[in-house]
Amino acid sequence: GRTENNARGGGGRGRVGLCVLCGLPAAGKSTLARGLCRRLPQRRGWACLLLTYDELIPPDAFRAREPGAEPDPSLPDWKQSRRELLQCLERLLQAMLTGDPLAAAGPSRQPVWERFLACCNRQGLLRSMEGGGGRYCAHTAGSGPLCIILDDNFYYQSMRYEVFQLARKYSLSYCQLFLESPLECCLQRNRLRSHPLPDHTIHLMASKIEMPDLKKNAWEQNSLILRSSDCASEKYAQSCESKPNVMCLHVSLLPVSPRQEADRAICAASAVHQADQTCRRLVSQAMKEARDKNIPPSELKSLAEELNKLKAEVLEDVRQGNHLKSQLSVQSQCSDPDTSVISLFQLEAANIVNKYILK
Predict the structure, then answer these.
(1) Whole-angstrom Cα distance, residue 309 to residue 182?
(2) What does pLDDT average to in each consecutive run of 10 residues of the chain (359 residues)?
(3) pTM greater than the 0.85 cutoff
(4) Residue 314 in contact with residue 279, Cβ under 8 Å?
């Protein structure tokens, strides 16, 4: 059909990916989301759309959901608001992929829809059509990729699966970034916010949160888990500033869409050979750099061992085909590993070399 053809690149803008951020409140998701929105356009040429659920779902829906709150039929339903938000996202995707205009929603969806349109407008993704009437066109002229970042807790796997289903339906790329931070750190940082959540709300969510299960759920294979243990606000802010670079790499290498699994399998065999050749070259370059910095021979030996161990781990990931790195190593159209797993290897190898240089 028309939508399917456009989703596969027959029309509209270039590649589109959905990136889900998940974790406890005050784990740092919004800070990292903003960092991604700054870095992805600068480093990879990706356009970004940030959808923050706390801003898009009406506040009354959150109040109605607080533990111990009396049911109030006059307040919007939180679960229904989440469903409506996904429906808004789907309507936007359809408009982008088909070129059809976005029209005003019906009264039942008006609050969420108006918030959603305002959010897209602020980020330059929409433009009003001639004649007004609340009709918009999605910007589809750009050929560069678009990363849609969903910033929410997503503490149940079922919440994340709904987004994955949307990606699968429209042949979009999909990945999820899980920010893991100790409960006490989240509680401390939450208390410093201008509008903190009650402690018991975060405790309750921590007891229910479901980590990505890469072994059980094939659809969660494209996950990156980032761990933070800094509770002090200053150290935490510094760690957040450093992580968008790593996350930028992973998000900009969003895996191919679910409908392209067969093509990816065909590319896998050659990816191992390509990755091995490129890793060898990068190890040689790293060792030359270390020798130029006059690192003692005894430390050069240790450096070589670390780099070769890293290379072996990366190649095994590619060979097994069951890890995030291997998923990233085989892009659509058998792309060069320099733009995928090798970029990650190069980043980690540079960190190892710097450790020796800065001794």
Answers:
(1) 30
(2) 37 72 91 86 84 86 53 63 91 84 62 88 80 66 76 93 92 88 91 90 92 87 78 59 60 58 50 77 89 88 90 76 40 41 78 82
(3) no
(4) yes
Alpha carbons 290 and 308: distance in angstroms, whole number: 15
The token pair that represents 237 in the structure block: 């802010």
pLDDT in the model for residue 338: 39
Exposure string for 293-328, b = 16+ CB within 10 A, e = fewer: eebeeeeeeebeebbeebbeebbebbbebebbbbbb
pLDDT the model gives residue 146: 87
Q: Which pLDDT belongs to residue 329?
A: 37
DSSP calls for 173-186: EEEEEEEE--HHHH
CA atoms of 103 and 291, how far apart (whole Å)? 63
**Nearest of 108, 92, 224 to residue 170 by alpha carbon:** 92
The tally of CA atoms less than 13 A away on the side-chain side of residue 205 is 25
User: Domain locations in the chain?
Assistant: 2-254, 260-357
The span from the CA of 151 to the CA of 52, in Å, is 5
Q: Which amino acid is at 61?
A: A
d(CA 52, CA 18): 13
Answer for the pair 250, 328: CB distance below 8 angstroms, yes or no. Answer: yes
Phi, psi of 156, deg, nearest 5 = -100, 145
The whole-number pLDDT of residue 11 equals 38
CATH number for the domain running over 2-254: 3.40.50.300
**φ, ψ for residue 267 (rounded to 5)?**
-80, -15
What is the Cα–Cα distance from 342 to 114, expressed in whole angstroms? 43
Amino acid at 163: V
Which residues, 6+ apart, have CB-to-CB distance to 226 below 8 Å? 32, 177, 178, 179, 180, 243, 246, 247
> What pLDDT sits at residue 203?
94
- The confidence score (pLDDT) of residue 7 equals 37
Instruction: For 224-274, give the secondary structure using H, E and C.
Output: EEEECCCCCHHHHHHHHHHHHHHHHHHHHCCCCCHHHHHHHHHHHHHHHHH
